[in-house]
């Protein structure tokens, strides 16, 4: 006997979208959420965070974002939207229930902090940003200043620092560095290798809108077409310490899972000298950080904006066998083994993650309803 046809793990955007899509098809489900609120990850992001995709490309199935929201909704507005999305669809969530193990016997079994549940299907909707990645280097544990991951950063004032090093060059790194530079901090970024940068908008059109229009073209062709435009827009960043990745932004997303920096002002601050750029960290002693090119500088805070892992190995006993050394399902694989175990929200895209989550949720629900 099963507790429901489907167990959904996670009550963020992916979990809610799957629940609404299943409900629309008359299917039964249970939603488990380890936190005490919807969209727990959004509650813990830094204050300044905004969507980098237009609100019309960021809605979940069945409910557009409110007209009064700005073009790029804030973190708090996204939370408001998700709470309204859940309540208006009467989605019941079991809060404070942590799924600990997912395994297949005669049916799917989910061990949780609140007991064992069984279902024909399980949807893992815990997302890409689950387990913070904290790189190590010689002397890191001896750093005498503040050392925190971007998941622990709230705002420049709370950091209470004067000289900041941001490790990484993704969107969190770019926004944190920009905010702190605007607040008057002496800011530097440590960039380990080549990166891609795209504008938030081009000629008044959002980058996500352009990506949606180009989505049916081969991705390497798209990068080749866009390369001259990006070169004109940003020029030679190499003289500022920013090496451009070969292949282009879309190639980086599809082949390496690396999302480009969407520029909202960070590049301009680098050009002006307000944000310095160093290569990878070699080692640190007390407050001095040494870099692989022989340069060094003093910092009283380091923010590791180095991303996350999905953390699926903690849930799946057969993780290594199931994913053959990868961090999770292959790109676009919603039901990799065709065995009733689904994944929603694990594919990085240039067209907007919330838009992609909505499309995936509909496909997952259609697959379950069609069995």
Automatic annotation (TrEMBL):
<dbReference type="GO" id="GO:0050661">
    <property type="term" value="F:NADP binding"/>
</dbReference>
<dbReference type="GO" id="GO:0050660">
    <property type="term" value="F:flavin adenine dinucleotide binding"/>
</dbReference>
<dbReference type="GO" id="GO:0004497">
    <property type="term" value="F:monooxygenase activity"/>
</dbReference>
<protein>
    <submittedName>
        <fullName>Thioredoxin reductase</fullName>
    </submittedName>
</protein>
<dbReference type="InterPro" id="IPR036188">
    <property type="entry name" value="FAD/NAD-bd_sf"/>
</dbReference>
<dbReference type="InterPro" id="IPR050982">
    <property type="entry name" value="Auxin_biosynth/cation_transpt"/>
</dbReference>
<dbReference type="InterPro" id="IPR000960">
    <property type="entry name" value="Flavin_mOase"/>
</dbReference>
<dbReference type="Pfam" id="PF13738">
    <property type="entry name" value="Pyr_redox_3"/>
</dbReference>
<keyword id="KW-0560">Oxidoreductase</keyword>
<dbReference type="GO" id="GO:0005829">
    <property type="term" value="C:cytosol"/>
</dbReference>
